[in-house]
Design a protein that fits this description.
- The complex is a heterodimer of chains A (about 775) and B (about 950).
- Chain A has about 775 residues and is mainly beta.
- Helices cover about 5% and strands about 50% of the residues of chain A.
- In chain A, strands 47, 49, 51, 53, 59, 61, 63, 65 and 68 form a 9-stranded mixed beta sheet that branches. In chain A, strands 36, 38, 39, 40, 41, 43, 44 and 45 form an 8-stranded mixed beta sheet that branches. Chain A has a 5-stranded mixed beta sheet with strand order 8-10-17-12-15, with no helix packed on it.
- In chain A, strand 55 (about 605-610) and strand 56 (about 615-620) form a beta hairpin.
- The N and C termini of chain A lie far apart (about 105 Å).
- In chain B, helix 2 packs across helix 5.
- The chains are: A mainly beta (about 775), B alpha+beta (about 950).
Chain lengths: ~775, ~950
């Protein structure tokens, strides 16, 4: 409750030296932080009397790192705990009015709370359940009278999604019962809820759904059982953000806000009736960019608007309804001045409609909006925006582990060491090269990032903390912007933490922010370095990257090394292990034939389990160049019978001059067939691989043969894989040669012929010869 | 056949012929008819049974495998005479009795009369003279009765089919079938014995009983038989005009009737012997192409029509794997030949008005044949889209549902009766199948119609049917059986001993009705029906498709409707029209459990219309009227159902948008047309609303009978149509009048099935005993006695819980809840699975398995359900503690489990065990054993 101090238990693993509770929102001050054990820390929080209601994300900084994000909720009422058994109306738990109840919905559990109110009193309830972010907990709530009649009930609501609220005016003096359960009786001991119960007003919708920043606006709060009312407020915030408008009435506030879009676009509100083109709002077409506000207030209602647009403008018409928690499932139709349909959209990603269009002529255009199922009601509020499609940029840190959106979302840099993360770029209406800048960083920390060219959707950011950097942490903003300094396109590095996620189904609640938790933590017991050979890797080539570990004394655990980012077309094992006590390993990488050429920056991430938990560090960024191959080779098809040696011809094509001699190894030969390693130099045009075929060689068509050519440049091997698709047929001897007793004679006759020719015969030539008896 | 001859030699000497000597018979007049009507079929040009052929003199004299047929030296020892003279019940008598004959298409035969034997004998004795060049062909035996001048006092009326005749073009004809009705409800074919007279202008020519057009005009045909008269109006049009054979209208029916396009012949997916036709003729265009365009000049020879392979194969003029399909002089041959002669054209494509059949009628609709070997020809009339009709009997294929009682010649449609019983005889012409009902009753039955009490229309109609079958129903069950039966059926639990006691003591003569009324008003009654409909609506969770929450909401929606007594058609209407989120509008889950349009269509037809149209997805239905056109036109109603994700990832939104389904043969969008109904104007309308309104309308011919049948089947263990979801022409209702009356009442009750349930439960038919009498022991379909029915899995578990005083725990339900209340089809237990609870994976009524199995028996005997519960429930301990006598304890257990007191003999035996027991612990164990035995008894497991 606001204005109070509250003691909070923080439980987790390896909380060795708790240092600070990082709070994402103002209004909560940490008074004290006391370690009880490595798994339990107590914090006393002081909640300001004017602290905003709702969710407060927190992380605990310890010397060893930052914790996952947890959320803490602030309400306006005193809190009471549920007292079981309260599983039937007969043994309802009697509670005061205007309280917040902390309860648990166990399996097949229904919780009953009884209040006594006077006739005419507003009874409102709102549940925070799935929003608490613990588990997929879909609650159901009902208000019953003392005779066990359900007066109102709610399961899912447009405003609060799976969470529910109810509001009614008591029809008579007396006792009322609020029943809470999991909607399918599938609760468990993690299904915790906060039930706000009192006389507050809980409107379901607000109109207009958007307002200009800094402008005093009267908002109509819709859906209160006592009737709609106006709330005056001045929305603040950035363009496109949501302003939290709390409904206040009779000194009480709704426990959670209604959402108002902050936008400076000129707008017009609908003027019913506007059900046809002739009655479209406004009477004079508004010039795009602009916006319209309206309500689909009855079944089968259609609202018409018209606007003026210039030919060729890149426009986007979008409905904002579900995104503002309106029940409307919009269908948007764009029409020309004659009313002819140009385009129609139901859903675009979400349930809100979006149409991108370029006006074919200067002139006025219509938009219609209606509900997809023909539904309507006073809370079916919407806004239609017609805005230019401007370039925009944003970025995020990708989800590192399936179903765990918190994994490595915080940046913890050991002192004197490095930490690397991948950053994803989200570009809209632009394809610029990007750069990332930290608006601020903890003392002693610097950041470098690999290039993010137009073609790349992600890149590496490497943070380095100086050895003398103090152990500290905080929330820091990062800006991603167009590398071209003339461009003003930029955006933020966003953080999205998914709570209440169900496998395969989706996310039910998340917390978004534009600040990343960055901390300098205790030293790591090792450093990692990546050594890339100073020659290029070629397409269809391989290379060995050396990973060297500097272990502190006393640390000899095995270390897992990964490549967090690879250039396009480069393949590598997902991880390698540097064994216990070892300090070196090789990361073998390979490239595909169409790997993009160029120079890229890579690093490796090393992680190890220490007695203080997992430690993650990275190497610095190193250059890797991908080039076209120096030569290529093709293998001609060869055919033989068991026990008979043959020759396979390889034709060589040189693209660049190689230095000295290069080894050539044939791979993919079947069992029982061998050939010696050959060498080639810059002048070699053809290689004849003498294949030794054993009597028990594997029969059949073997078409996975290829050559590895190993030219050396500046003392480093540049491995080429070439000649893919080489084919060797190994057949059984023909029955005639098998049974004839003079087989040996035949062979003796043939052998000199076969060994004589100065030039080995191709498969085709061999066949031609055989045909000539 | 050889065995007849072989046997005969053993008994040869013991036979004495009694042959009256007559004057030399005339072969042509006297002997030829006897041979042609009785012998040539098996010993003629087409068949040589026993190696004997008799159609020419030379072959006759050659004899068969067992020797000479005619011995001119010792005429009395001629085998032919020996065999025809055997006693009538002798195995080897010639002509053989139909039942004895191993040749299925044998048309029946009768022992020769003494006169006929005498004629044969005289003919042989006189040298078996046979005029030169005379060759015999098979003739149908004349069935014209003698002494037709006499009146028959038993005869009520005669009936003729068709009742009016219109002949168009010179190719048209119609044959009469006349049936006589007798006082004892039996019927008989008297067609051969009628007299026909043309009254007025002679516009028709009469051959036998077939009318052919002579000239335009109209007349009356006067039909008389034993003093009863009928007249049939006849009109003739375009008598001089020829009718061109049309491919679709004439040729396709021949191919279908001859079996050319069945799956085992050319209708197979890859054809047969290089020639493929569409299965049951679903693709006439493709068939035309293959007949005329594949291998040009071969299958069809326009220059020499008779040489067309199509014709020569059919009459087996050249070897044909499928054998001979018809004769050269048959109607089928003529149709094909005419078509080829006319140029073998396909029906003009621009000619939209091509006259095609729209329906067929098989007459007579219902007959009762008395005694064996009664013959009755069927007549099939096809009605065409231009309103004309034709006699297509000879182009129709016939089949019988029970050839033990009624045989039918698959080509001619001549039925013959054999054993007592009933059969449904079906004719298939073009894409249509229709059937008729035949009952065979014994000739000499001592049956007398019993005077039976009738509670309502159900009893009347059931008794009427039983009367026609000459079956006397069982007596009513006693009160204790009734209270148990009605409790188990209506509310899925046993009556308590207290309830039994007060019911037995109740002296109200209408106490059974009162009990039914009381039980129908309970919540438990609702639960039983929610469970039954939940099975058909497949309420269950599907991974990533229907979440548990959606399934539960769907179940709750159904329960709320049934509990509030929403008219059933309203529930279905709401279901089929539903749109919105699967959470916010739970009825939409119907469209979420099945995502595939075609499967969804099939489910709607099967659940709400009780008909399975699956076959017609790929070809015309072989045993029903459904064609591919019907299938895709009906599927078109569901082609616009769309689904999209809602805000909640677990929820789907069901809505309508544009969408079509293509007919795979024509590759055109199918137009929505009601199954077996009209084509509504669907422009700018929600197709689902149209189909919902049509299906749930009181006029819908499928819906009400289907629901009524499902309700009926619950109480009798089998439907009037059985299986309940397999209504088809070839699976007719066992009592059509009863079904249609139930449906009528159901509609009259505004689709309140509670009222229908009441009608059923208060009927005497429902209250009959399971004990049978001599006349109804073999009856399984006509409700002349109650059937013992194993309890359904859920009810059985609930009843075991009730008897043992133990509680169940299922997901989503509080402890002690009943198995019938489970919402999700996927929530199950080993017990429920073993006893065949529906998994709700399909809509099929076969999902609920009621057949007993070894694992069920073993589970009850050894499994933990019974044993553990006996211990857990503490019923025995409570009884022992109550200080009752052993007799009282045993009686209490009987009342608890079987709803009846222990009988004296049972009691005596059981008490002996108790008395012999040494010590309280042993006694307790013996009581437990008795309890266990009762729970394992058939009397407990079955509702009887």
């Amino acid at each position: 409750m606001r204005g109070n101090d509250v003691e909070v238990d923080l439980r987790g693993n390896r909380m060795f030296e708790p240092r600070e509770l990082i709070c994402y929102k103002k209004g909560v001050v940490v008074k004290s932080l006391t370690k009880v054990s490595d798994k339990h820390v107590k914090a006393v929080l002081s909640i300001a009397a004017d602290a905003p209601l709702g969710e407060y994300p927190l992380r605990l900084l310890c010397d060893g790192g930052l914790t996952y994000m947890s959320t803490f909720w602030v309400g306006q009422f005193p809190c009471v705990d549920e007292l079981e058994p309260n599983n039937s109306i007969k043994n309802s738990q009697v509670v005061d009015f205007n309280v917040t109840i902390h309860g648990v919905s166990e399996k097949e559990d229904a919780d009953y709370y009884q209040i006594t109110v006077k006739q005419g009193q507003r009874i409102s309830v709102e549940l925070e359940a799935i929003r608490l972010g613990r588990i997929l907990f879909d609650p159901y709530v009902a208000i019953l009278n003392a005779r066990n009649d359900v007066l109102v009930a709610a399961d899912d609501t447009a405003l609060l999604r799976q969470d529910a609220y109810l509001s009614l005016i008591a029809p008579e003096d007396g006792e009322y019962v609020i029943m809470v359960r999991e909607s399918s009786y599938e609760g468990n001991n993690k299904c915790r809820y906060r039930l706000h119960l009192g006389g507050f007003s809980r409107p379901g919708a607000v109109y207009p759904p958007s307002a200009k920043p800094g402008v005093d606006t009267d908002f109509r709060m819709i859906g209160d059982p006592a009737g709609d009312y106006l709330v005056r407020a001045t929305p603040t915030g950035d363009e496109g953000n949501h302003y939290d408008l709390f409904a206040r009435r009779d000194g009480l506030s709704a426990p959670s806000p209604n959402l108002v879009l902050v936008s400076a676009l000129p707008f017009v509100s609908e003027d019913e009736p506007n059900d046809e083109s002739k009655k479209a709002t406004p009477t004079e077409a508004l010039a795009a960019p602009c916006a319209f506000h309206g309500i689909i207030d009855k079944k089968e209602d259609v609202d018409w608007f018209h606007f003026y647009a210039n030919k060729g403008e890149n426009l986007r018409v979008r409905v904002r309804a579900r995104s503002l928690r309106s029940p409307l499932d919009s269908v948007l139709i764009l029409r020309d001045a004659e009313g002819k349909q140009l385009e129609r959209n139901d859903d675009q990603g979400g349930l809100d409609s979006i149409i991108d269009f370029k006006p074919p002529t200067d002139g006025s255009y219509f938009v219609n909006i209606r509900d997809q199922l023909g539904n309507g009601g006073p809370d079916y509020v919407y806004r239609v925006e017609i805005d230019r499609r401007e370039p925009s940029l944003s970025a995020n840190i990708p989800i590192g582990k399936r179903y765990d959106s918190q994994y490595r979302k915080m940046i913890c840099i050991p002192r004197g060491n490095r930490y690397a993360t991948v950053v994803n770029i989200l570009r809209q209406n632009t394809s610029c090269e990007c750069k990332l800048q930290a608006d601020s960083l903890p003392a002693g920390v610097s950041m470098k990032h690999s290039s993010a060219p137009k073609s790349a959707n992600n890149f590496l950011a490497v943070f380095e903390a100086r050895e003398d950097a103090p152990v500290t942490g905080g929330l820091h903003r990062f800006t991603i912007s167009d590398a071209d300094t003339n461009s003003k396109v930029s955006g933020k590095l966003m953080e999205v933490i998914d709570f209440a996620q169900q496998n395969n189904v989706g996310v039910f609640h998340n917390v978004k922010g534009d600040r990343i938790a960055v901390a300098v933590i205790d030293e790591a017991p090792f450093h990692v370095n990546l050594e890339i050979p100073p020659v290029s890797i070629v397409q269809n080539g391989t290379a060995r990257l050396k990973v060297r570990l500097n272990r502190n004394k006393g640390f000899d655990e095995a270390v897992k090394v990964t490549l967090p980012w690879k250039p396009p077309g480069v393949g590598a094992p997902s991880e390698i292990i540097i064994a216990k006590g070892e300090s070196e390993a090789f990361y073998d990488i390979n490239t595909s034939g169409d790997a993009a050429t160029g120079t890229y920056q890579l690093c490796v991430v090393a992680q190890a389990e220490t007695d203080k938990g997992q430690v993650v560090v990275s190497s610095s960024l190193q250059n890797l160049t991908v080039e076209e191959p120096m030569l290529s080779m093709s293998l001609e098809m060869a055919s033989t019978i068991l026990g008979e040696d043959t020759v396979m011809i390889g034709k060589v094509e040189h693209h660049k001059e190689i230095q000295g001699q290069a080894k050539v190894v044939v791979h993919g030969l079947p069992h029982g067939v061998t050939t010696p390693t050959l060498r080639l130099d810059a002048t070699t045009k053809q290689l004849n691989f003498k294949l030794k075929v054993a009597d028990d060689a594997a029969k059949g068509k073997h078409n996975a043969l290829f050559c590895q050519v190993l030219p050396i440049k500046n003392g480093y091997v540049i491995a080429h894989n070439t000649g893919h698709g080489g084919t060797l047929m190994v057949n059984s001897p023909s029955p005639s040669s098998k049974k004839s007793g003079d087989k040996m004679d035949n062979k003796a006759e043939q052998q000199p012929v076969a060994s004589k020719p100065s030039k080995p015969l191709s498969r085709l030539e061999q066949l031609r010869q055989r045909k000539r008896p | 056949m050889t065995r007849f001859f072989a046997k005969i030699y053993h008994v040869f000497t013991s036979i004495i012929l009694v042959t009256p000597l007559v004057a030399t018979p005339d072969f042509l007049k006297d002997v030829q008819p006897i041979l042609e009507e009785n012998c040539i079929r098996c010993h003629g040009e087409n068949k040589d049974k026993g190696g004997l052929q008799m159609h020419t003199h030379a072959l006759m004299m050659e004899g068969g495998e067992t020797g000479d047929a005619i011995d001119l030296k010792n005429p009395e020892r001629s085998l032919i005479l020996e065999l025809v003279s055997l006693s009538h019940d002798h195995d080897d008598i010639m002509p053989p009795a139909p039942a004895e004959d191993d040749d299925a298409d044998y048309k029946g035969g009768f022992p020769l009369s003494d006169d006929q034997i005498g004629l044969l004998d005289a003919w042989i004795r006189n040298g078996a003279k046979w005029p030169v060049g005379v060759s015999l062909t098979e003739k149908e035996k004349s069935r014209r009765e003698s002494d037709l001048g006499e009146l028959d006092p038993e005869l009520i009326a005669i009936e003729v089919f068709p009742k009016q005749v219109s002949l168009e073009t010179s190719a048209d004809f119609h044959r009469f079938v006349v049936v006589a009705h007798y006082k004892d409800t039996s019927t008989r074919d008297v067609t051969p014995s009628i007299d026909l007279q043309v009254v007025g202008q002679p516009v028709v020519r009469v051959e036998d009983t077939t009318l052919f057009p002579e000239m335009d005009g109209s007349c009356l045909i006067q039909i008389s038989y034993r003093g009863k008269q009928l007249s049939v109006p006849v009109t003739v049009k375009e008598a001089s005009e020829n009718r061109l054979a049309s491919f679709q209208r004439d040729v396709m029916p021949v191919l279908t009737a001859s079996g050319c396009n069945t799956g085992s012949c050319h209708g197979s997916a890859r054809g047969r012997d290089g020639f493929m036709l569409s299965l049951f003729g679903y693709d006439p265009v493709g068939d035309y192409h293959r007949i005329t365009r594949e291998m040009p000049g071969r299958r069809i020879n326009l220059a020499l029509p008779e040489d067309s392979l199509l014709l020569r194969k059919a009459i087996e003029a050249v070897p044909h794997t499928g054998g001979k399909l018809f004769e050269k002089d048959s109607r089928a041959y003529q149709v094909l030949l005419d078509w080829v002669k006319a140029g073998a054209d396909y029906d003009e494509p621009q000619d939209n008005g091509i006259v095609l059949p729209t329906a067929i009628e098989v007459y007579p609709k219902q007959v009762v044949l008395k005694g064996k070997d009664q013959l009755l020809p069927l007549s099939v009339r096809a009605i065409y889209s231009d309103g004309s009709d034709r006699d297509v009997t000879k182009l129709t294929t016939f089949s019988t549902s029970n050839d033990n009682s009624v045989k039918v010649d698959s080509r001619s449609g001549l039925m013959s009766s054999s054993e007592r019983g009933e059969a449904f005889v079906m004719g298939r012409f073009h894409t249509f199948s229709e059937g008729m009902h035949t009952i065979v009753v014994p000739k000499d039955n001592l049956y007398q119609r019993p005077k039976l009490e009738e509670a309502n229309y159900i009893d009347e109609l059931v008794h009427e049917k039983l009367h026609r079958l000459r079956v006397t129903p069982s007596e009513l069950c006693d009160d204790s059986v009734f209270i148990r039966r009605v409790h188990l059926d209506l509310i899925g639990r046993l009556p308590t001993p207290g309830e039994l006691d007060s019911f037995l003591k109740d002296s109200n003569p209408l106490k059974r009705n009162v009990l039914v009324d009381r039980l129908i008003d309970t919540n438990e009654f609702t639960e039983i029906w929610v469970m039954k409909w939940a099975e058909l609506l497949q309420i269950r969770t599907f991974p990533n498709q229907v979440s548990y929450k959606a399934a539960l909401l769907y179940h709750n929606w159904l329960r709320a409707h049934i509990a509030s007594n929403t008219p059933f058609n309203e529930i279905v209407r709401e279901l089929l029209k539903s749109k919105g989120g699967t959470f916010s509008k739970p009825a939409t889950n119907f469209f979420q459990v099945e995502l595939e349009t075609k499967q969804l269509t099939e489910n709607v037809a099967q659940v709400f219309m009780g008909t399975r149209i699956q076959c017609a997805q790929c070809h015309n239905h072989p045993f029903d009227r459904w064609t591919m056109d019907d299938y895709y036109s009906f599927a078109a109603f569901f082609a616009q159902v769309k689904r999209k994700k809602s805000g909640d990832p677990r929820e789907q939104i069901i809505y309508d948008a544009s969408g079509q389904i293509k007919h795979p043969v024509t590759n055109e969008n199918a137009k929505p047309r009601f199954l077996g109904g009209a084509e509504p104007d669907s422009k700018d309308k929600s197709r689902r609303e149209l189909v919902a309104d049509w299906l749930s309308s009181p006029d819908n011919p499928w819906f009400a009978p289907n629901v009524a049948n499902i309700v009926w089947a619950h109480f009798f263990g089998l439907g009037i149509v059985e299986p309940v979801d397999d209504v088809r022409v070839s699976n007719p209702p066992s009592n059509p009048d009863l079904l249609s009356e139930l449906a009528k009442q159901f509609v009259g009750y505004d689709f309140d099935f509670k009222k229908l349930v009441r009608d059923i439960c208060i009927s005497k038919t429902y209250q009959r005993s399971t004990r049978t009498n001599l006349s109804n022991a073999s009856d399984t379909r006509n409700f002349s006695h109650a059937q013992s029915r194993r309890l359904r899995a859920e009810v059985m578990l609930d009843v075991i819980s009730q008897a043992t005083n133990t509680e169940n725990k299922f997901k989503g339900l509080p402890k002690g809840a009943k198995a019938v209340q489970i919402a999700d089809g996927n929530t199950s237990t080993y017990f429920l699975k073993t006893f065949g609870r529906a998994t709700r994976e399909t809509v099929c009524s076969c999902e609920v398995r009621m057949d007993p199995s070894l694992s069920q028996a073993l589970h009850l005997l050894n499994g933990d359900t019974v044993n553990k519960r006996i211990k857990q429930g503490g019923v025995i301990l409570d009884l022992i503690k109550s200080k009752k006598s052993p007799g009282e304890i045993i009686n209490a257990l009987y009342l608890r489990c079987l709803t009846r007191p222990v009988s004296a003999s049972e009691k005596e035996k059981l008490i002996a065990y108790i008395e012999a027991a040494d010590g309280e612990k042993i006694k307790e164990e013996i009581y437990e054993d008795i309890f266990w035995a009762l729970l394992n008894s058939k009397e407990f497991i079955f509702n009887h």
